[in-house]
Every structure is written in structure tokens, then in C-alpha cells.
Design brief:
It contains 10 helices and 11 strands. By secondary structure, the protein is of the alpha/beta class. The strands form 3 sheets. Strands 3, 4, 5, 6, 9, 10 and 11 form a 7-stranded mixed beta sheet that branches. A two-stranded antiparallel ribbon has the order 1-2. GO terms for molecular function: DNA binding; DNA-binding transcription factor activity.
Length: about 300
Amino acid sequence: MHIEYLREYIELAQCLNFTEAARRSCITQSALSKHLVSIEKEFGTELVARDRHSVELTQAGHALLQEALAICERWDDARRRVNKAAAIPMLRIGGLLQNPRVLWIVSSVLSSNDQGSVSITCTYNQTFSKPFIDLLRDKEVDLVFTYQDEDQEKKIGDEFVRTPIFDDPFVVVVDATHPLASQKNIHMEDLAEKTLVRLSGPYYSWGWEHIEAVCTRHGFQPKQRSVFTQPGLDYSLVDLQNDALLLSQSALTGQFFARTETHRCIPVSDEDAHFSICAVRRKDDPNAALKLFMSRIAKLSL
């Protein structure tokens, strides 16, 4: 059944005049009669009782009128939703997508309906072979989640807009036999004479630079042992060799470490001991999906 047949039926049911209903529907009276017969055949019952002098709805006709009004309203709403969604382009996101809290933010934004019927469609760029900001410069993505500090802001430059999202506190992971393993929390100075495991590779470079910057503010250059790690590798597979590994509190593997008997996951209590996560986008990017995405982030309780 065509939705327009129901609209024509609504006009007829409301004015009870074939000539007027046909005029309102911009069709001929014979076409209206033909469409009504089609509807009655569909439902298997008479909907309109008519003779030379009057037109009346049957009991079934009254029931269909209420349903037809609701169906057409839902159809019009669906059309508005589809049209608005079609007007919103694809949003391409890259960066720290393996961070569980970043993933929660993205999923919360995508499931949000605070903008009515508008939905956002995303694709995810999991490329780690180049710095995240280069993905933006090369227009391979529209938005990246990455780390933020003063030195990195200089590298980003004025061509981009940075929006702070949340602070992700440091935690130190050590073997259960490590000298720090018995402490409930530590300060950065406690790591001055310890060797830190440096996870190397494009995905981790900015994170390590930030760790170095925090160590410098606390008066020491970190001793380090580099371990090449592929993105997504379970950090529990890293051989700590009685060294310390700094991770973000929200790191999924950090939660895993906290549940094991062979490792200890210790919070770092200094106020500046955290990764600052920000969203970076190109300045004056006209992408409507990007603007909507950022407006929804601003409404989240982070």
C-alpha cells in the first residue's frame, strides 16, 4: 500500500466529500475512488459507506483513520530523520582509539540523541605509521584524540584547534618483587633512581615525551629501557625485568595488571602526573558532523 493512499484516505475521512478530498489531494475523483477500493481490498472490509446523498465512515473506517494519522506522522518523522542524516557527512576519527575512556566518549556521542533525529556516522583510522597530527594535515582524518602538553602544542601549530577532554592519571606497574610494590601510592620523585620501561613505536612516542616532561618538572631525567611494542599488544606480556612501567589509569591493561598477583598497579599522587587527552581538529573545518560531534562532547559529564 502506498503511503499517499493513506493520506488521501485521511482527507476523505475528515471532510467526507469525494470532490473536496480529491481537490485537497491533487488527484481526480475517479483516482481517489480507485485508491479507496484498493485500501478496502487490503483490509478486507468496507471503510466508507456512501450513497448519492452522504458519505460516512464505517466503524472500521473510524479505526483506520486513527491508525492512518499515526502511520503518516511516523512516516513523516522517519523521512525527516533520514533527510537530516543524509545531510550530515561522514566523520573520520583517529588517534588514541585504544584508550578505553576515549572509546567510551566516542560511543556516548554516537549514541546521543540530544540533537533530535540527527545521527553521526563514523569511520576509524587505526594508522600508527605516522604521527596523529600528520593524519590531520594530510586530511586522512577529521579529528584525532591525542596527548596535550606545552611542547606538543608548539608542534601542532596554529592551523589546528585543540579541545581538552580529560586528564588520565599515571599509574606505575611493577613486578610484585619490586621495591615499590608495597606502596599504596608514589610520587614522581620515587622514580628518579628507577629505570622506566619506554614503549617505543609511533603510537607511543608522544606519550613518552609527556612522561619525560613530567619527570623534568620533578627534577630528573628518567632512566629508560626501550621495548618495541605494537599497538594493541597486551602490556602484561612486556617483560618488566624489575623495572617500572608508567601507564594511564584508564588503560585496559592497567586494569588487568591491577587484578594479578604477579604485578602491582600503584597510583601516582602528584597533581601533574597525568596524560592530558585532547581532541584536535583543523581550524575552520566545515564538516557538519565534526561540529555536531564536538557540541555533543561538550555536554558529556567527563
